[in-house]
Protein 1
Amino acid sequence: MSVINQMLKDLDKRSEPHQLQQVPAAVAISASKSPGLPWRWLILLSLLLVAMALMLWSLKASDSERTIASGPQGSAQQAAENMATAGTAPVKMEPGSSVLESHSQEPPVQASDGQEPANASRGTESGVSREPVSESGSTTQNATEDGESETLTEPTTASAAGEVIAPALSVKTLSEPPVTGSSSAALNTNTPAPGSMAVTEVVLTPAEQAERAMVKANAARDAGKLDEAMRQYAMALSYEPARHEARRQLAALHYGQGQAGEAIKLLQRGLAEFPEQSSFALLLGRLWREQGDKQQALAALQSIGDSDTLARDKWLLVADIAREQEDYALAETAYQKLLSSGMEKAQWWLGLAYAQDAQGKLSDARYHYQRALSTAGLSADARAYIENRLTQLGDSQ
């Protein structure tokens, strides 16, 4: 500052002789008597320099804050301003990219109807268009419908006459388009994230459902929960009518609870639908016998053939019914069927001998009584009866 003051003093001294020669004496005396005039200019110049320095510092501070806040858009705007200042062609900035692509590599963009491009070679290729300048000096950011964000930067410096010093720039930064239609469907997968739980519905077949009901029914029966057991057996039959064990167990539970009629109906339906199931016929015969209807019992047992695995059980039941009815001919037939099945028992020989003895077939009865005595398994009372009867038959002979 002192150097500048010294230079101004030297200039004043050099110009004083010439000025005094050209002006009148009164003027020269008054000029020489006003040494404070250069100092006022120096003060004004200093204030102007300080004001300019403060203005530059505030502009730099606002630019740095705007760059940090705006992110990629601020970088694109700054780059566009630099390109416009340097007089080069503006470029298009992609969001998140640090590479500047030349406007020659971008495809041309057609202007929409009713819009007149200001510069066809720049505005349509680079996405940077010059807009009219407003005097507010603010920054406006608009969002377009196609996913583009538009930042309008308006000048903040104007001359004293109101003329705009720097033109305003409109910088468009292209963002990624929104996901639509097929792309969203491609991203939406059914693969569960790690650690998540996926619930899948499992459809059981009727046989599998019947098996599950049988397991529950057996467990309930063993636990003494007879009502629950009956419900589960009935459910098993509804899923699979051919579940014959469920029908037999359900009939037995009905009979055990005094519901013999329900048990008989259940077995009759099963025998009508599955006539090959001899177990239903045997159970019906026993139930009818318990109910006192011997004829119904014998009719039910007739469906069991001699080659059936339950034929022996059938003839045992027929023999008991025949003895109760004193039908000795039927009893003789039943015991003969039992002895011809490949198995011999002393009780069967005794039953056959008794049936023949009751019919007056004494020789056959004596022979079969002796066969019964020679076969193990007789009780003491049975042996005493046979020996006594043989003695009677011998005396009668």
Protein 2
Amino acid sequence: MTIHWPLLLKLTNDKQLMLLDSERAWLDERDHLLGQSLLLIDSQGICYHCQDGVLLPSDEQIALSRIVQWVSDYACQNGHFCSAKIGAYSLAQLFDMVRYLEDS
């Protein structure tokens, strides 16, 4: 299965999010994340899980509203804007928000 970059990485039991723009970015981060429960979503909405450092497609479907909540929580955790202000209608918009939050 082809991964459609970027990937949104979510630590399962944390509000932390990370946007990975390429396979190289994933490989750079992968070793630091071994042993943690991860969920990754590509730009087409396909979910992946990491098993022994390898990304495996998952049948899991994550609703856009749930990802909006993740981005909201991540923004608030990092002292940015109020969750009520987040409105997104696509994964691309949410990925752009995470990129903005990472850069600021």
